[in-house]
Amino acid sequence: MTPEELRYTAEHEWARAQDGDGTVVRIGITDYAQESLGDIVFVSLPAEGVAVTAGDPLGEVESTKSVSDIYAPVTGTVTARNEALDGQPDLLNSDPYGEGWLIEIRVEDPSALDSLLDAAAYKATLDAH
């Protein structure tokens, strides 16, 4: 499952503009990522107000198999974090594109989303594996 309206990174994060002008972006991990990780048992996310840089790690997802970094798909400031994941990290497994979102970032450059992969390009990276 790869929703067409989202943008993606090669590291298996997704991004969705939350407002009309694209200044706030919600991010999460893809269905492929959660499936590869297995049962997710802990998520470490940055606090609101923390600056993140595209391509840099911003947190971690711990599963029964491994610990994986989460990378920022865009540069900006964290404006919200999904507090529900503190008690229910398995939301990343059950609903990675909905209730399992990670954080929201106020982006410095709204056109940054355009530099991410569209659904077709992301699917092509998966097919290459």
- Low-confidence spans: none
Number of helices: 4
Global mean pLDDT: 95
- The best one-word shape is globular
Strand content: 25-35%
Estimated helix fraction: 10-25%
DSSP E strands, number: 9
| Cα separation of the termini | 16 Å
> Which H/E pattern describes the elements?
EEEHEEEEEHHEH
Molecular structure report:
The chain is of the alpha+beta class and 129 residues long. Helices cover 19% and strands 33% of the residues. The chain is built from four helices and nine strands; from the N terminus they run E-E-E-H-E-E-E-E-E-H-H-E-H. The chain has helices spanning 31-37, 84-87, 91-94, 119-127, and strands at residues 7-8, 13-17, 24-29, 40-44, 51-52, 57-63, 67-71, 76-81, 103-107. It has a six-stranded antiparallel beta sheet. Strand 1 and strand 2 (13-17) form a beta hairpin. The longest helix has 9 residues, at 119-127. It is globular. The two termini are 16 Å apart. The mean pLDDT is 95.
What keyword list fits this structure?
129 residues; alpha+beta; 3-stranded antiparallel beta sheet; 4 helices; globular
Tell me briefly what this model is.
The protein has 129 residues and is of the alpha+beta class.
Please render the helix and strand layout as text.
Layout: E1 7-8, E2 13-17, E3 24-29, H1 31-37, E4 40-44, E5 51-52, E6 57-63, E7 67-71, E8 76-81, H2 84-87, H3 91-94, E9 103-107, H4 119-127
